[in-house]
Structure formats: C-alpha cells, structure tokens
Amino acid sequence: MTRQAEIAYEGLSKAARVRYIARMFGRVSGRYDLLNTVMTVGCHHGWRKEAAMAVAQGLQGDALDVATGTGDLALALARQPGMARVVGLDMVVEMVALARSKASRAGMGEWASFCRGDALALPFPDGAFVCVTSGFAMRNVVDVTRAVREMARVTQTGGRIAILEFVPQKTRSLVAASQRCYIQRMVPALGGLLSGEREAYSYLSRSVDGFQSAEQLAGTMEAAGLRSVRVRKLGLGAVGLLVGEKG
Ligand SMILES: C[S@@+](CC[C@H](N)C(=O)[O-])C[C@H]1O[C@@H](n2cnc3c(N)ncnc32)[C@H](O)[C@@H]1O
Fold first, then answer.
1. Domain assignments of the chain as residue spans, ordered by start
2. What are the beta bridge partners of residue 165?
3. Given pLDDT bands bounded at 50, 70 and 90, which one contains residue 187?
C-alpha cells in the first residue's frame, strides 16, 4: 500500500474497509494460489495439513472453514478421517467459484461445498460443526474478536477451533529481521510482479505488522470461551497455529 493509500484505508469506516478488502481479494483471486506458493516456497500446503490434522484429530462430524479463499484449508480438512462434510465460506464470489471448481477437479465435490457469507455473522446455528478453521484470514476481517466469537458459537461443545495466521515477529533475532524484511519489501514487489496488484500485496504485508501476536490471538480465543488454547509456531516463527477447545 502506498503511504497515500494507507492513510486513505485508515480513514475508512468498517463497512468501507470490508468493501475495500472484498474488491482487493476479488482482483487477486485468479493469481492467489500461485502467489501463495511462490511467497511461502510451497510451505503453505504443509501448514494447512498440520492445522487440519490438529483440529480434526479424534473428532467425527461436519466442519467449517471460515474465509476459505480458494478452499485449500477446507479441502485439507475434508481429507481428515472422521470429517463428514466440510463447508467453506467466503465473502468474495470469485474466491467461492475458484474453491468450488478446485473441489470438483479434485473429485471432492461430494464432501466439500462452498458458499458466500460473512465471517462476522455466520449463517449457521449454534453448535453446527464439530470443528471450525480459518487460515490467513483473521488479519483481514475488520473485527477479529467478533469473528472468533462467531467461530466459537457455531462449534459444538467438545469441538475444536484452529486459526492459522501470519504473526508479527517482535524479537531481534536475525531470522526475525530477515522475515520482516521479506514481508515488508519482497512480498509487495513479488506480488506486484506476479499479480499486477502491488497495492494489494503492500496491504497484506502491512496487515501482518499491525496484527496481534500469536499469544495475543490466543487471548482473543480464550476471551471467546475457548479453553486449553495451544500455540505452535511454524515457518521459523512467522506463522502461528492456534488450536482451542470449546468448553
Ligand atoms: C488471505 S485470504 C485467506 C484465504 C484462505 N483462507 C487461505 O488460507 O488461503 C483472506 C480471505 O478472507 C476473506 N474475508 C475477509 N473478510 C471476510 C469476511 N468478513 N467474511 C468472509 N470472508 C472474508 C477474503 O475474501 C479472502 O478470501
């Protein structure tokens, strides 16, 4: 995001921020998977698998992936033993269409379905799912507390929630400094080159810096009524995998 665009975004109302984010993800949707793979050097598939295994372990029933994008985490979840049907929800119509065609190409259309909807007002009854996930999306919702509460609301008692997210690195280590440099300089440059949307990838890199640490996010999950929240760091500390139980 240029400094001017950044100032303009900060001045927007919540409703206008939602429209801004929806338009941005609509524009990058066609290149989203390619950019994920290039920018994480393919690691995002492994991180999603870890999240899906951790959240689904030993559970049986239906699952939900919130702000599913092109559906990779929903499909990783649908591959876990015990998962019956998985729903992926996103507010951007282009993302939902890409997720649907990916599921059908993978022969998984029967187990994974996708719908348009708002993470801040999930269109499902209380306790509808045995587990609920969200990958790299909590930075992009305009009200994280409400989104996590909604995830908790639609989870059955005894079920689990997993959040996978890039988290800011506050330590002074060389690894943390290199990652900050990569996210702040390389991500916008690469994103601009490969998608033609440098501003979108500047926003994404800035959203990591301004986001909650993994420990703060665990606190947000606990405040939403989740217990035994476990925090794991992946990607040399750049990614937090948080798993909590609905008490
Ligand atoms: C960075 S992408 C992550 C997509 C996917 N979960 C993944 O792991 O790659 C963020 C997604 O959040 C979605 N999103 C942001 N705010 C949302 C909201 N309030 N309701 C539903 N989807 C939302 C965007 O449309 C976008 O697809």
1. 3-246
2. 240
3. confident
Report how far residue 34's alpha carbon sits from residue 42's, in angstroms, rounded to the nearest whole number.
9
- pLDDT value for 175: 81
The DSSP secondary-structure symbol of 124 reads S
Q: Are 8 and 20 in contact (CB under 8 A)?
A: no
Rounded Cα gap, residues 244 and 231, in angstroms: 9
The whole-number pLDDT of residue 116 equals 98
pTM score, whole prediction: 0.93
Q: Is 95 in the pocket of ligand 1 (CB under 6 A)?
A: yes
Q: With 80 as the cut, is the pLDDT of residue 25 above it? A: yes
**3-246 has which fold?**
Rossmann fold (3.40.50)
The reply to whether ligand 1 has any atom less than 6 angstroms from the CB of 28 is: no
Which numbered atom of ligand 1 lies nearest the CA of 68? 6
Distance in Å, CA 137 to ligand 1 centroid: 5
> Looking at residue 180, what is its pLDDT?
80
